[in-house]
Amino acid sequence: MSEADTWCTDEWDPKRITSTIVLSNDNKTAENKNGGWALVKGKLIMTQGIYRIRIKIDRHNSNNLMIGVCQKDFTGISYQSAQGWMYDSGSGGTKWHSGTSTNYSQRCNQNDIVTVVVDMDKKEVSFERNGKDLGVAYTGIASEVVLAVDFATTTDIITIL
């Protein structure tokens, strides 16, 4: 499979969002309207093969904007759970799993594009920032995952491209 064949599109699932999330742009854009931690999840269930999904950071003012994947049936805040594998594009570009952070990359800025690369055959997640490969962030992920973003504040807006 060539890299061009692995690009995927997704949309935010209105049935799988925290009540403070407002969707627009045909469910491609998500914004946390009422503050506090909130979760939005994609519709596409990843089970086998390679998936590459791009997310544009339309507005980014908080210290915590977690982008990654979580188990498909998970509810809660992904970065605190063993069921989430997240890249904190805010505070210093750390990665979070099971409530523990590890240095990974750099903070993202407004208009940056974060690509979530999920290899379900290898059970790995990696990320790209503006086309630059940041390397494998996680191995041993769950067998069914969905795109996920944890918002910490009302100031951030993201769009699936």
Q: Could you name the key traits of this structure?
A:
about 160 residues; mainly beta; Jelly Rolls; seven-stranded antiparallel beta sheet; 14 strands; disordered N terminus
pLDDT < 50 stretches: 1-5
Structural class: mainly beta
Shape: globular
Radius of gyration from CA coordinates: 14 Å
Largest sheet: 7 strands, antiparallel
Could you name the CATH topology? Jelly Rolls
End-to-end distance, in Å? 21 Å
Mean pLDDT: 88
Say which CATH homologous superfamily is assigned: SPRY domain
CATH class call: Mainly Beta
Instruction: Spell out the helices and strands N to C.
Output: EEEEEEEEEEEEEE
Q: What's the tally of helices?
A: 0
Explain this structure to me?
The structure is a single chain. This protein is mainly beta. The protein has one domain (15-160): Sandwich (Jelly Rolls), CATH 2.60.120. It has strands at 12-17, 21-24, 29-32, 38-42, 50-59, 65-71, 84-88, 95-97, 100-102, 113-119, 124-129, 132-139, 145-151, 157-160. The protein is globular, with a radius of gyration of 14 Å. Residues 1-5 have low confidence and may be disordered.
